[in-house]
């Protein structure tokens, strides 16, 4: 088969370290099944590139990326480059240019992962957040008037279009229907009397087409409390760009920490490449020390396998991560261990080969 062409943007800080381990896992999948091959093309874009060239990526960067089957991103951000530059001039421009309007972030407490909640069973933390990823609060619309003067005014506008709102909600309904799970919408209609009232209205309208899907709707502040007090009530969750960004970090804390938090930016119509990334930051304070946890990056690689239609291999990667956590002997410092980034990656690959061999024997 023709190899999948993957654009790799390792980025800044720990990005190159963790993304390398994810690439190794994908290459291991290729050894398990030679029909699944990947070609990786690396791009040096990020904050270091910005410091040399005054821009986060090449002028024709989007055109270059459009030729790929998917994008694998490490992390962006580094001291000296303002966060709004590193975010808007690379990550968000890719999401918007390629209409990656579905952001998928699993919040699943797998075996061996630590949950800070003492009275919660592992099976009770199993959520799939579907976040609107192209507009909403991160639309970039607004203005800065009378800058530096005493009558300075800043406008930050949220944009909720009928198309954008309906398509993400419909995607969430379809996902909940396919998985046989409940669907929860999270908004803030009591305070945001235009955008979130509209969101709730569209959620109800689309829901009439899916009578088999059991639904709930919460205000974002109540949802944050309930995620801690009663996480089992959340299965598939759909929410806006900002709320999804915040709540999935809370979810990461419930499901083993930010080192296990994976993310996918999907263009469901496959007209453009989708992008896969861990949701943690670039952590420049530990860059180059071998302390970075690569598991979120590896989990993101499993999401890429799912997207390409190789769900069985995506599940095997997650099983390898789970076995590594259960063993508890090869873990990075953030998870209470002393292993290096590469040692964790190596052990995941060993477990992956073992799992593949076992499944082949069983079949």
UniProtKB/TrEMBL annotation:
GO molecular function: D-malate dehydrogenase (decarboxylating) (NAD+) activity; magnesium ion binding; NAD binding
Alphabetical list of SMART domains matching this protein: Iso_dh (SM01329)
Pfam family for this entry, one: Iso_dh
Cofactor: Mn(2+); Mg(2+)
Keyword annotations: Manganese, Metal-binding, NAD, Oxidoreductase
EC id: 1.1.1.83
Transmembrane stretches, start-end: none
SUPFAM superfamilies: Isocitrate/Isopropylmalate dehydrogenase-like
Name of the protein described by the UniProt record: D-malate dehydrogenase (decarboxylating)
Family to which the UniProt record says this protein belongs: Belongs to the isocitrate and isopropylmalate dehydrogenases family.
Residue intervals of the Isopropylmalate dehydrogenase-like domain: 5-348
Catalytic activity of the protein: (R)-malate + NAD(+) = pyruvate + CO2 + NADH
